Amino acid sequence: xxxxxxxxxxxxxxxxxxxxxxxxxxxxxxxxxxxxxxxxxxxxxxxxxxxxxxxxxxxxxxxxxxxxxxxxxxxxxxxxxxxxxxxxxxxxxxxxxxxxxxxxxxxxxxxxxxxxxxxxxxxxxxxxxxxxxxxxxxxxxxxxxxxxxxxxxxxxxxxxxxxxxxxxxxxxxxxxxxxxxxxxxxxxxxxxxxxxxxxxxxxxxxxxxxxxxxxxxxxxxxxxxxxxxxxxxxxxxxxxxxxxxxxxxxxxxxxxxxxxxxxxxxxxxxxxxxxxxxxxxxxxxxxxxxxxxxxxxxxxxxxxxxxxxxxxxxxxxxxxxxxxxxxxxxxxxxxxxxxxxxxxxxxxxxxxx
Length: 353
Prior knowledge:
Elements: H1 2-49, H2 56-63, H3 92-99, H4 114-123, E1 140-144, H5 156-160, E2 164-168, H6 177-180, E3 186-189, E4 206-209, H7 214-224, E5 250-252, H8 255-265, H9 283-294, E6 297-301, H10 322-326, H11 333-345, E7 350-351
Parallel strand pairs: 1-2, 1-6, 2-3, 3-4, 4-5, 6-7
Helix pairs in contact: 4-7, 8-9
């Protein structure tokens, strides 16, 4: 009998213990369920706020374009959200639709050129921003223009000290290292302005195609496919007929960046009459907009032109003079110079020259 009573007492004592364990399990389960719900909510919010609607790997990449120190709120000239600058082959149409690029023909959208984008992106299928082992935070960048003001300034060492060095078109480095430096992180180009001489090849450069017309994409696809590009009459001057960069080095700039440069920054007209030649931003201004997307601090070198002296040097290389630039009806250099001065005065940009 005593044994039975002891067993009874043991069972009686164990019931509260088992009941406590059951309650604890329920609490842990509730916490796990709550954490799961919170994860889903946060994940959905991230996707809603992700203007690209990118899969997780691309969202991680997009984080790299967000400056670590935001532009001061009173500087309304460039108050736009950061965009991932390069088109990716798997989602460029969804991205373009979200940005409204479906409503614009080139150079500001993809309308009526979707097939050309698809072809070019199928060959240039890398859309990464920085190398995977490169820290994405707080990039200090310098955008190096091709202006004659760089001559004899000996800024090469200073330019090379920046995290990111952005150049454009066929502004050479070889032979001008003392004034313009040696490094190039990104080089923005279009078919008529890209290097074709292998002497200018740099394995550490990412070459970024700025698309102005569908044939720019057809040109890229042909060259990366090993085909000979024939229709050179579609260009204002003969384009390069060979590429010194390999497919993994090439990116295609999102037309939304070009559109922001034209409409949000320079306030160029959105429509032109039949008798009026459209005006577009220079590659230099597009490069600056690109830099504002990926850098926490943007410096400039080589962007000052002497508009009062037609015989002054246009570039730091060659013999072209300002008279050639003044004949260019596609760009409004005076408007761009005034705009840059305003950004420099407001300390959005820092001018080295």
